[in-house]
Amino acid sequence: MSGSSSTALRAPDSPLIVLLVAGAFFMENLDGTIIATALPQMAHSFGVHPVDLSIGITSYLLTLAVFIPISGWTADRFGVRRVFTAALAVFTAASVVCGMTDGLVSFTAARIVQGIGGAMMVPVGRLAVLRATPKDDLMRAISIITWPGLVAPVIGPPLGGLITTYSSWRWIFYLNLPLGLIGMVLAWRFIDGRDDDTERRPFDGLGFVLSGVCCTALMYAMELIGRSDAPWREALAFFAASVATGVAAFLHLRRCPHPVVDLSALRVRTFAVAMGGGSLFRISISTVPFLLPLMFQIGFGLDAFESGLLTLAVFAGNLSMKVVTTPVMRRFGFRSVLLVNGALAALSLAAMSLLTPTTPYGWVVALLFFSGLARSLQFTAINTLSFADVPKAQMSAASTFASTLGQMTMGMGVAVGAIALRVAAWLHGHPAQSVTPADFSLAFVLVSLVGFAALYDVFGLARHAGAEVSGHAKR
């Protein structure tokens, strides 16, 4: 894309757009988890079993994973402002339709459309910020637009329970209407529309189909494996399909002159590390919003409200770390922070295995708060390192690839948590349908090993990697 279209924001308006994009990300992430506690009431409205409504969550997450790859091409073809505003419109309209539906089929269809809008919002909004933000201010911008991915999964379930208890589940979706309308007005007003010279490269239809099938098959296979009554033959068939289409997609994307997912940014060392070890870290921390509420309610016998209050300690840690993230990065640099803080984040997951029904609430809150601090710093450092050395010309491709992989790994975190819980039950010699506190303890140990494995890639980073962004080399 040429220089004029690469500057997506007017410099004076950059802080406002960063907040706008963060708000859009928050809506997109929140809608992936907020309906979890509303499933019983929704099932009653639709006349189905609550378990059947899990398709409302998975269809949304799968749609995000499938359609995110075409967001870069769409932004290059039609312009950042048009695509981001249209994505907000689609997402908002689909949210209203979700709240108006009276059947499982129509609700699922509306969730798929909502996922398409969300798939456009995530990378296109981040691309707008990346193109306009100077390198030395990138840490602050990434820190702001990172928090929705950390906060929304934590507060989504308790917020959904609050709305469902004191109002109706439909308001979970209706609340997106005023937020979406405000976002559309601000996006059209403040995002620079000078994109007349947008890039008209051909659409890679084959790459889109192959990558979409690969992502969908992999996520569904992992979901099947995590079930208590897993159909192994079906799960292995989907896993084999994912591997086959993944290999075919990789070979195609490397040869295609205009691939739907450009892999060239992986030649940048810092980007490759953020995508490799960073993905393992995202998987490990994404198990927490899934395992913690289950452990508190099923393992410890707490009710949904008490469980939600305890998990808010993670949210408090996430926000508290934002105040000191930039000074810490400038003092120690990416490599040191990712190694030391990554080890602390993994240790905090392992420490959750020590929690029991008799552990004082003060100790529980302190551990969860510390875990929130560590995961917030690590998450921001990885997301910022991703684009620290990527040239402006490759920002669109890098943002699309990072968003696709990020969405996949966050979704896979839930599946990995379920698989860890099932493995723990198997090792303890009892059926997976009847989990115990000891199963949760072992599951957290297994998940922490994934977090420790994420550190391997970081050892290969140079001491001053990404110094232009972190400011560490200036010390």
TrEMBL record:
Compartments reported by the entry: Membrane
Domain Major facilitator superfamily (MFS) profile: 17-466
Bilayer-crossing regions: 55-74, 86-106, 112-129, 141-159, 171-191, 203-222, 234-251, 271-292, 298-320, 332-355, 361-388, 409-428, 440-459
Gene3D superfamilies: MFS general substrate transporter like domains, Multidrug resistance protein D
PROSITE patterns: MFS (PS50850)
Domain of life: Bacteria
One Pfam family recorded for the sequence: MFS_1
Chief location of this protein within or outside the cell: membrane
Membrane topology, record value: Multi-pass membrane protein
Keywords in alphabetical order: Membrane, Transmembrane, Transmembrane helix
Entries under PANTHER family matching the protein: MAJOR FACILITATOR SUPERFAMILY, TRANSPORT PROTEIN HSRA-RELATED
Name of the protein: MFS transporter
Source organism of this protein record: Paraburkholderia kururiensis
